[in-house]
Amino acid sequence: MAVRPTQSSIFNLVSRGLQSNLTKLAHAQERVSSGKEILRPSDDAVGTARALSMRRRLGLLNRFRDSVDSGRPILETTTSALEEASGILSEARALVVQSMSGSMNPTDREAMGLQIELILEKLVDVANTKIGDRFVFSGTKTDQEPFNLTSTGGEATVEYLGNDSVQRISVGFGTDLAVNVPGSEVFGASAVSEVTLSGLTGASLGATANQGTGYSDVLFRHDATTGTPGSGLALVSTGQFDTILNDHVLQVNGAESKIRLGNGEFVPMPVAGDSNYTNFAVYDSDGSELHVDFTAYTGADSSAVMHGEGSVAMPRGAYTALTFTETDMELVGQDGTVLHMDATGVTRSGNELASFTGATSIFDVLAGVAADLRNTSGLPAKDVVDRLSLRFGELEANFNRSLRALGTLGARTERLISSGSRLETVSLNVEGQLSQVEDVDITKVILEMNRTEQTLQLAQATGSRLIQHTLLDFLG
Amino acid sequence: MGGLGLNTGLKALLAAQASLDTIGHNISNSNTEGYSRQRLEVSASAAILQRGKLIGSGVNADTVTRSTDILLLVRTTGQLASLGRLDSALDGMTEVESLLGEPGGFGLGSGLSNFFGAVSELSTSTEDLVLRTGMVQMATAMTTQFNQLSSTMISQRQDTARQVGIQVEKVNALGEQIVTLNHEISQTEATGTPANDLRDTRERKMRELSTFVDISFHEDSNGVTQITTGGRLLVGGSRAFEMTSISQGDGEVEVFLEGSDRAVNVRHGSIAGLLRVGQNFIPGLSGKFDTLARNLIFEMNRLHSTGTPASGSFTNITSSYSVSDQDLDGVSSDELISQSGLPFDIQDGELYVNVTNNTTGGLQTSRIEIDSSSTTVGDFLAELNAISGVNANLNSFGRLQVFADAGFGYDFAPRLDPAPDKSGTLGSAHASIGTGVDGPYELVDGDTLTLTGPVSTFSATFNDADFVEMTEATADEIAAVLNTNPDMQANGLRAVVSGDQLFIQTEAVGTSSALTVGGGTALAALGITAGTTVNGASTAVDIQIGGEYTGQDNSFFRFVPTSDGIVGTTPGLEVDVYTQSGQLVATLDLGTSYQPGTVLDVDQGVSVSFSYGALSQSTNDSARVELIADADTSDVLAAFGLNSLFTGTGAEDISIRTDLETDPGLLATGSSGASGDNTTLLALLDLQSTGVDGLNGEALGDYYGDVVSDVGFEISTASATRDVEGFLLQNLENRRHQKSGVNVDEELVEMVRFEQNFNAASRYIQVLNTLQQEVLNLI
User: Fold this and answer.
1) Fewer CB within 10 Å, N or C, chain B?
2) Roughly how many angstroms between the first and final C-alpha of chain B, as a whole number?
C-alpha cells in the first residue's frame, strides 16, 4: 500500500516526536539536578548492584575508621598513664637505692617509708586512670576500678579487681586490634626465679615443693630459754628478751673476763656498776642473743649449753612448736601458701621472708618496701638492707615491664594509625569508584541535553510548518 | 430524450450531493478516534433501449462503504493487549521500585548499614549507655523499615487487586456495549445498508477491550462479533458473559467468567499486567524480604543468645516464641522440639548452661545434648530442671520460661571454668578412687560393689531397673544408684562423675579420711582392683584454668597424671592432656622443676596451673575442663528465642526484643558479662561479610543488593520490551491511518471534483431545459 499520510497521523507524528524529545530533556534535567546517573534501580540494574555493594563497602570502611578514631584516645591515654607510671617508678627506684645506703638511720628510713607509701598511692591513682567512664587498666571489666587500695594494720594491700581479657576493636576485614593492656599485665605478675627464704634465723627450704604468690613472712618466735649458764650467771626474766633458738654454747673465760655465745666473738664482760650489768646481751654471729645477769658472777670459766625453745608460724596463723629436727616441715598460711621448711639450722627467732614464683604486683613490692623501711618488726639493719635489695630487684623487673608495656602500646598505636591512613586511602578509592558508577558526568549530560534541545527545536519548526498548511489555504 | 435525460441529470445531481455529504462526513470526522474513511460507491445505471439504441440512464449512488482492514484490527488488538499488560505491570513495578528507596541511600540498605554502624560504634565503647541506646534505636529503625516495606507491599498488592476489580467492571461495560452494537449492526445491515459508523464504534470498543484483556473474535454472517478471552466466551451472539474478580484479604486475586468456577487465564492486557504484579512480582519480592528478615533474626539471635548482658547473669527470661500442641493431644511438652511449632529449626548439638552462685561466685557449667530427631520439649525442660539452681517450665502461652533460684544466676555464654575440678577428682583432699576405664560400663543385673567406709563394710547392688541399658550403664546412672544407697550415706561416701568417668569419694577431707574398695562383681567392668584402699590428703591440688579458648569447635581437655607424686617435688611427675577426640595435646612437667602455681600453656589459648599437693595415677585421677567455642551448637536458644536480639519471623513482624528497648542494659555485648567485653558485638559485625546458609551462602547486605538489582533488571527488561511493543503498535496505527484515516486535502480535492460534477450535472439539466424550451417555442 502506498504511503498515504493523513492529518491525524501527521499530528500524532509531530506530537510524538515532541513528546519523546521532551522526555529525554526531562530525564537529563533530572540527572543534572540530582547529580546522580542512577535514580532508580531500573535505570541501570548492574550499576545499582555495584553502587549498593560499594556503598556497603564504604559503610564498612567508615566504621573501621570510626573504630580507629575511638581506639586512638584509649591507646593514647593508656600510653600517657604508663609514662607517668614509669616516672613514678623511677622515683621509687631512686628512693630505694638511697635507702639501702648504710648511712641511713631508722628515722630516715621511716620517713622514706612514708614517701614510698605516697608513691604507692600516686601509682594506684595512675593505674586507675579513666577515659570517660572507662578504666583503661581493668581488662574488659571497664566499669570496675581495677586497683583497690586498702590498709590493714598499717600495711597497704592493693587488690586487682579487673580481668585479664583484652578488648579488641575491628579495624579491617578480619583485622582486630587490641586497644587495652590489662592492669594485671602492666602492674601485676613478675616471676621470681625460685622460692627463696631470706632472713637470719637459719631456716632453709625443705625438700618438698612450696606454693604461694608474692611474699610471705615466716615468723620464728622464741618461747623460752632452758639450760643454766655457768659461772653463777643467771637468765634475765627467764629469758624473755632472748632470741636464741636451739642449742647454743655459752662460754665464759673468767681470766680474760670475756664471754661468747655459740660461734660469736668473745666480748668483754661488763663490770659491776655498768648499766647492763644485770642485763647483758651476748650475740652469736647470726645475731641471736642471750641476756644474762652478772649479779652472781663467780669469775670461774664455764661452758654451758643454752637451749632456746621456739615455735614457727605463717602470718596470722597458729604457732607450731619447733623441735629443730624437722627437715621438711609444712607450714600452711591462711591464703593457701604452703611452705616446706628445714628447721634443723634455725638458730634464732625473727622473720624469714619467703618469696615465691607467681604474681607479685608492683604495689606489693612498694608496700613491702614501705613496710621494710618502717621496720615495725624491728629487724636489724643488715636484714632490712637485705630485704630492700631483694625488693629492688623486683622493682627493677616491674619497671622494665612497664617499659615493655609502653613499647607494646607504641606498636599498637602505630598499627592503629597506619590502619587509619590505609583505610582513608581505600575509602577514597571506593568513593571515587562509586562516584564513577553513580554520579552524573555533567559534560556528557549537558552535551546530550544540547543535542536533544536542537532536535526538539527542529521538530517544533518542521512540525509547525507541516500542520499549518492545508489545501484550504489555496482554495478560493 | 426529455424524461430520461432529466432523470439522468437528477441522478447525477443526487449522486454528487451524496458524495459531497460523505466528504463532509469524512472531514467532520477527520479527528474522530477510530473513524474509518467512507466513500460513496457509484455505478452507471442500466442502459435503456431507445430507438434501437441502448442509452445509459445516468449514475446510481449505491452504498456508502468504509475503508477498513480486518486483519489489521486483529493485529492491533493483539498488540494493544501486549502493551496493556506491559504498561500496567511497569506502573505497578515502578511504584514498588520507588518504595525501595535505592540506590539513593534511603532504603533498607542504609538501614542495615546504619544498624551495623551502631553495633560497631558500641563495640568500641560498650560501657557507653548512649551508644547502647543508639544501637537499640538503629535496630528499631531497621526493623521498622522492614515492617513498612512489608506492609506497603501488602497494601500495594491489595491495591492491585482493587484495580483488577475496577478493570473487570470496565470489561463488563465494554462487553455490554459491544452486545448492543452487535444488535444494532445486525438490525441495520439486515436492510442491506452497511452500518459503517456503528462498526467503527464497535471496533473502537474492541480495541479498548483489548487493552484490558487479550481477545480473539470472529464475525458471523449477520455482522455479529463474538469475542473470547483465554478461550472462554466473553461476548456471545446475544449477551455478554460477566467477568468477576475475587480477591482475598492479602491481595490475592483471581478472575472468573460467568458460567465457570475455573479462573480465567488472562495472558495479556492490563488485567494480566496487574495480575503479574500482584500475584508474582510483589509476593516474590516480599518473600525475599521475608527470607532476609528471617535469616537476619536467626543469625543475630544465634550470636546474641550466648552472650551475657552487662547486668550479669539471668534470673528470669521468657522465650520469644512459643511451642504449641501439634498432635492435639492436649499437651505440648511431648512434641519434638523440631516439630513443636517453633519458627526456626534446631540442629543436633549441645547447649551449655552456666549457673553462677552469686554468694560464692562459683560457676557450674552443665551440658545438655539436643537431638533434633528425639529431644522433646519435655526432655529439654527436664534437662534444664536437672541443673541445680535453674528451673524451667512452659507458661500458659507455651513460652519457655527459665528462672534461677534465689542467689543464683545463669547464662549460656561460652565460658572457660577457672576452677573445673569441683568435686576433686584430680589430686583430691578427699579419699577418691576413679574407675580405670571410662563409661559406659558393661554391667550385669545384680552386680555388686563392696565398699568399706569409716563406719562399716557394705555391698551396693546394681539392678536392671536402675539403668536404661544395663550393658551400657553410664557413669551418671551408677552414681545415682550409689548416692541413694543408705550405707553410702551412713559411711559419708559419695559418687561423683567427671565426664564419663566415675569416682567414689569420702565426703570428708584430710589424711584421716579413707575408703576401701573391697570387691564385688562390678569391679571388673569398672576397672578397679579389688582391695584398693585410698586415703585423703591435707592439701588438695587446686587446678586453675586461664586464658581464652581460641579453638573453633567445642571440645574438652582432660588432665591425667602419668604417675603418683607430689606437684613440684616428685621427679618426673607428669600430667597428660587429652582432647575430646583422645588426642594428646600436651604433657605437662610437674616434677621438681615445676614451682606450684606456675601457669603453663596447654593448647588453643588455654593455660593451667597446679597448686601443691599429691596426684595419683594409681587411683585413676583425672579432671576435665570443657572448651566451648559455641555454647549452643543446637541453635535451641535461637529457635526458642531465649536471650534473643530480635523477635518475629519475617519482614512483617521483625522487631527488636521489647525489653531491650526499655532496658538497653540487657543487650549482650560480650560473653563474660564484663562491661568492656565486646566479643558478641564483634561476632555480630562479622555477619556483615559472612555468608549465610539460608541466603544461598550470601551475606545479608549482598543478598539485599541482589534483590534490589533483580528488581531493577526486571523493570528495565520490561521497559525495553514495552518500547519495542509500543513501536510495533505505532506501526500498526500508522497503517490503520493510511488505510482508514481521513486526509483533509484529499477530501478537499474530492470535494472540488464533486462540486464540478454537480455543476456539470446542473448545466446538463439546464441544457435539457433550454432544449425543451426551444421545442416548446416551436409550438
Assistant:
1) C
2) 18
Q: Using an 8 Å CB-CB cutoff, list chain B residues near A1.
A: 735, 738-739
B260-290 pLDDT, tens digit per residue, is 889 999 999 999 999 999 999 999 999 999 9
Q: Highest mean pLDDT: which of A65-69, A134-138, B17-21?
A: B17-21
- Nearest Cα to Cα of residue A168 among A160, A156, A176: A176
* Domain co-membership, A185 together with A107: yes
Residue-level pLDDT at A283: 86
The vertex-B306 CA angle with B301 and B312, nearest 5°, equals 115
Q: Is residue A65 within a helix (H) or strand (E), and if so which, with residue range?
A: helix A45-99
Q: At what angle are helices A442-468 and A7-34 packed, to 10 degrees?
A: 160
The pLDDT, as a whole number, for residue A1 is 47
In this predicted model, what pLDDT tens digit does every residue of A402-411 receive, in sequence order? 888 888 888 8
Q: What is the pLDDT of residues A455-471, one digit of tens each?
A: 989 988 888 887 777 77
Interface of A with B in 424-463 (CB under 8 A): 438
Locate the chain B residue with the closest alpha carbon to A135: B676
Joined together, the cell numbers standing for residue B194 give: 452497511
Residue pLDDT, tens place only, B184-220: 999 999 988 889 999 999 999 999 999 999 999 999 9
Q: Do B676 and A132 touch (CB under 8 A)?
A: no
Give the best residue of A19, A37, A193, A211 to mutate against chain B (max B CB count within 10 A): A211
Q: What average pLDDT does this structure show over B115-143?
A: 91
Q: Are residues A170 and A260 in the same domain?
A: no
- Cα gap A71→A177, rounded to integer Å: 9
Task: Answer whether B754's CB lies under 8 Å from B16's CB.
Answer: yes
Query: Distance between CA atoms of B576 and B559, rounded to whole angstroms?
Result: 6
What residues in B contact A46, CB-CB < 8 Å?
709
Q: What is the pLDDT of residue A194?
A: 67
The CATH number given to whatever domain includes residue A420 is: 1.20.1330.10
- Count Cβ atoms within 10 A of the Cβ of residue B71 and give its class: 0-12 exposed, 13-18 middle, 19 or more buried: exposed
Distance from CA of B753 to the nearest CA of A (A): 13
Name the 3-class secondary structure at B713. Answer: helix
User: How many Å lie between the alpha carbon of B80 and the closest alpha carbon of chain A?
Assistant: 17
What are the Cα distances from residue B496, in Å, to B434, B584, B623?
9, 25, 12
CB A354 within 8 A of CB A334: no
- Residue A182 domain-assigned? yes
Please report whether residue A102 resides in a domain.
Answer: yes
Higher confidence at residue A367 or residue A336? A367
> Do A98 and A114 fall into the same domain?
yes
Domain membership of residue A461 (yes or no) is no
Residue A99 is assigned to a structural domain of this protein = yes
Are A211 and A350 contained in the same domain? yes
Average pLDDT value for residue range A28-33: 87
Name residues 92-111 of chain B within 8 A of A (Cβ): 94, 97-98, 100, 102-105, 109-110
Tell me: the pLDDT tens digits for A56-108? 888 888 888 888 888 888 889 999 999 999 999 999 999 888 888 877 788 88
Q: Pick left, alpha or beta for residue B314 (phi over 0 → left; psi -120 to 50 → alpha; otherwise beta).
A: beta
Residue entry with cell 534535567: A29
* Placement of cell 445516468 in the chain: B58
Residues 6 or more apart in contact with residue B688 via CB below 8 angstroms: A56, A60, B116, B699, B700, B701
**Which residue from B568, B712, B752 is facing A42, i.e. has the nearest CB?**
B712
Confidence of residue A359 (pLDDT cuts 50, 70, 90): low
Of residues B3 and A172, more confidence is placed in A172
Please say whether the beta carbons of B630 and B636 come within 8 A. no
Task: Tell me how many domains chain A contains.
Answer: 2
